[in-house]
Structure formats: C-alpha cells, structure tokens
Amino acid sequence: MCGRNFRKGHVVASIDIFVVPTISFRLLYGLLILHYSRRELLWLGVTAHPNAEWIARQLTEACGWNGAPGYLVRDRDGAYGEMFTRRRKEMGVRDRPIARGSASHNGFTERLIGSIRRECLDHVIIVGEAHLRCILRDYCRYHNEARTRRPLDKDAPIRRYAQSVGTISSRAILGGFHHHYVRV
Question: H/E element holding 110?
C-alpha cells in the first residue's frame, strides 16, 4: 500500500498485526511493516482473515524479492505460520521474534499502532475493508511525508527539503484531522 524498497540485508524492519472493529462489529485486521532506521511505514495491509499465507503475500508485496530487510522483528503470534516462515527464509530475511508477553521489545511498531489509533482510527467509524484500506493509505502518506519527528531532526521519514521562500499554504489530511503546511 505504501513504502519503498531498500538495499537487501542492510535493514531491520518490524511487523505486527492490529485489530480494527467496524460499524457492524466485524473485526478487521491490519498488518504493519515498519523500517526501523527512519521509522518509515513500509506497508499497511487489511484483511478479515489473517493467516500465514496472507501475511507471506503482504511481506512479498511490501518488500519485493530483491528489497527484503536483513532482519524482521515480530511477536510470537500464531498467525505467522509455516507459509510465512518459508517465504521469509526464501527471501533471505532473518527472523527475530521477541520474548512472549514483551510488547515493549517491539516498541517502535507498538507505538506506531497506538499513533494510528489515536490520530486516525479513534475519530472514524470504519464501514468495511475498502474503507479501512483507504483510511490507512491516507495515514501512511501522512506518516511518511508530513509527520515530523524529533529523532529525525524534525524531519519526516521520507526526507524533504526546507523551503524558505513562498506563501504558506495548508493542505487538509485525513479529512481535516491533520494539516500539512507547505510553502508555495
């Protein structure tokens, strides 16, 4: 859904699954893949039935066969089955599962899931899978291109250049929940 490839073997990424209820009380599952060094959101996938085959396909779509990370940090969820393990090994990705019950060991990803909930999903009633995909695509773009971070010297994960000349303009993001200010 979003993101870019990176040089094989030189990157640590993390993966996690989160749950999103819909207006009809159906549960949808989101899969998030995060690039550690710049905190870039590489992938957000949505499904009603997460299984190892779907997760393996999401990993392939997110990274491609030639741009896979060197290491993948994940929890010990039962959804990461044999199909996922086989695909990960075929792609040359080393697995780093965290200790049981230690969500803090995957802190960057857990923090990002919390941000997605607080900044986006807590303010929107999700109708279905297509709606959630659309919302998460917009959030991914906002997170990578506009949301600044202090550890990155107040830059976004996808680098941008400071503009010192021009009129300041505001662009609404996520239906007006957030705004991106740029010079034109």
Answer: helix 107-119
